[in-house]
Amino acid sequence: MAGKPHINLVFVGHVDHGKSTTVGRMLYELGEVSEQIMKKYKDEAEKLGKGTFEFAWVMDSLKDERERGLTIDIAHKKFQTDKNFFTIIDAPGHRDFVKNMITGTSQADAAVLVCSVKDGIQPQTKEHAFLSKTLGVQQLIVSMNKMDTVNYDEAQYNKVKDDLTKLLASIGYKVDQIPMIPTSAYAGDNLTKRSENMTWYKGPTLLEALNDLKAPEKPVDKPLRLPIQDVYNITGVGTVPVGRVETGVLKPGMKIVFMPSGAQGEIKTIEMHHEQLPQAVPGDNVGFNVRGIGKKDAKRGDVAGPIDNPPTVAEEFTAQIVVLQHPSAITVGYTPVFHVHTAQVACTFTELVKKIDPKTGGVLQEKPEFLQTGDVAVVKIKPTKLLVIEPAKEFPQLGRFAIRDMGQTVAAGMVLEVKKKQM
Fold first, then answer.
1. What distance in Å separates the CA atoms of residue 407 and residue 14, rounded to the nearest whole number?
2. For 94-151, what is each residue's pLDDT tens digit?
3. Which of 15, 96, 160, 202 has the fewest CB atoms within 10 Å, i.e. is most exposed?
4. Which of 274, 12, 32, 296 shows the shortest CA–CA distance to 133?
5. What is the pTM of this model?
6. For the chain, which residues make up each domain, given as ranges?
């Protein structure tokens, strides 16, 4: 694992288009899942009358998911190819689970969009493609799955490929750089081996396309930003905050500040997987011991940064959002919960600045009275309590968010600018 570039990969697409089966089959063919386990899944699947589900179950390890045949939570699985090391975030396609899809996608460096050639583009194919773009996933691979169900017909492949090309171009993806691979995850066509059934296709297999993905540059030259996931009190050690370094470098001896609390301390030691590290860089999930910090001084949702460049606490911020699903309309005064890095804070819409045409980026309407499902808009937002948030162009990981209300994700977006709170 060490030494190979690391890429967070998310599989997105409409429910039942074969995301889990694709992932399961890839893991099996790359030797990450044993024959015995595969056989066990196959037998269980046949017992439940779900004959084609065994590969999907590699990812769907929750019993509840097996019985329903759905992917609920995000499963993290690791695998490697000869070039890259991957953590797969298997994002659920099912409607209720779009929140998990958003948290998954906002961590992803690349996405595989799975679309069945039998059914073509479905509502969530669009939604997930659009979300991936809005949440900053730059690299995309399209797996045009279930080719076996259309007898490997090139004409059907071309028809769906044209539709997908139009869709992705309208969102702003550079379509000439996106491989559109005809696959059958269930039969194993064009995943790790070239398919005999589609000699007309001359492009890469899914494995070759994955090998071509580039790991993101680690933003080590930026100031440290480390959102806190948990804080532990360990006997004999003291207070140990845990989180993932998003930007910058964390080193022993550094003086850091936790925002919004303003508590300051000095880094004593840094640990990952029970080993001490000389430093931690972006992407590392670490625990660190801080001199001068008590258990009450740091909590989930805080962000650690250098004393001379503290994380920004927002008085208000301007953001571009996509309304994914809202039962009625969003107006000024609406106060849902914003999920940003590890924080969850209720925030109020104070101004609807303008509606934007997602295809062109042009202004559709200045100062709209309300926003509805499908709208893209620039808005002003005021947090109801202290919140660290940064402009997405400076710190993408701290500038993207999901908006949740009534048990669903109503919108997602990114921060354009932040008005700093005077502390």
1. 20
2. 443 344 444 444 567 888 999 999 999 887 788 778 767 766 778 999 999 999 999 9
3. 202
4. 12
5. 0.66
6. 6-211, 226-306, 314-420
